[in-house]
Design brief:
The chain is built from nine helices and twelve strands. By secondary structure, it is of the alpha/beta class. The strands form two sheets. Strands 1, 2, 3, 4, 5, 6, 7, 10, 11 and 12 form a ten-stranded mixed sheet that branches. The longest helix has 25 residues. The N terminus is likely disordered.
């Protein structure tokens, strides 16, 4: 996929004739809580600094999860109506988006939050062309509220947003694992890390990359994906810059 010309941004000085890479970074909600309920400021600050370190070299859009607050599927298993539980999860992603925005701006990176559920006092509505324009100006764009619809995971939203903003690659940051393995390395000592896997093999083999809908969406539209571990924090910086870490997933 071709890169786009950079346009001079408000807080970022770049060569107008240069080209840059555009990525969609998927962050899990659990990472924001540091394993606990709510937001862990030190953890989010570290993530923000890692993103800011690469944001001058690439156009960065971000989809955040909300698992540190609510998980719609889990709430529904405990008796809550699924669509209402999913909407609660979407609101959790907006809280994470606002927290990340705050720490990114403390790190000197201009940001915009766009929400799939309209809440104009805290975020812009999600408009793909406006998001692209922000990226061209050097702003980090954070997408909250998932797809704005129940039954859609934030993995699927990450794939969809990447396609709509014409990203070059989807970056999936994982907790506790540094790529895609043949089986769960936390329970299977014989699990082997894969440097590369195709979407078809991941789907057929049932590999735990992202959910199957997200895999199919990327496969059908030729969107490349990289799955990597969030620790150490500089992995996020390296992935945004395009370093060969984790596992590459392609058609």
């Amino acid at each position: 996929m071709p890169t786009r010309p950079i346009r001079e941004g408000v807080n970022v000085t770049r060569d107008a004739n240069a080209t840059t890479r555009r990525v969609l970074l998927k962050l899990s909600g659990e990472a924001f809580g540091g394993g606990q309920l709510g937001v862990a400021p030190d953890v989010v600050s570290t993530i923000a600094q890692a993103i800011a370190a690469a944001a001058r070299e690439a156009e960065v859009a971000i989809v955040v999860g909300g698992g540190n607050f609510f998980r719609g599927a889990e709430l529904s298993k405990n008796g809550m109506e699924r669509s209402r539980a999913d909407y609660m999860g979407m609101l959790g992603t907006v809280m994470n988006a606002l927290a990340l925005q705050d720490f990114l701006e403390q790190a000197g990176t201009e940001t915009r939050v766009q929400s799939a559920i309209e809440m104009r006092q805290v975020a812009e509505p999600y408009i793909p062309r406006r998001a692209q324009r922000h990226l061209e100006k050097g702003r980090v764009v954070i997408f909250g509220a998932g797809a704005g619809l129940p039954y859609f995971s934030t993995d699927t939203v990450a794939a969809q947003r990447a396609l709509e903003v014409r990203a070059d690659e989807v970056l999936v940051a994982k907790n506790g694992v540094d790529g895609v393995y043949t089986s769960d390395p936390r329970v299977d000592e014989t699990a082997t890390k894969l440097d590369h896997v195709t979407y078809a093999d991941a789907l057929v083999g049932g590999l735990k990359v992202v959910d199957s809908t997200a895999l199919s969406l990327c496969m059908d539209n030729g969107m490349n994906m990289r799955v990597f571990g969030m620790e150490p924090a500089e992995n996020i910086t390296r992935a945004i810059r395009g370093d060969d870490i984790g596992t590459s997933v392609t058609v």
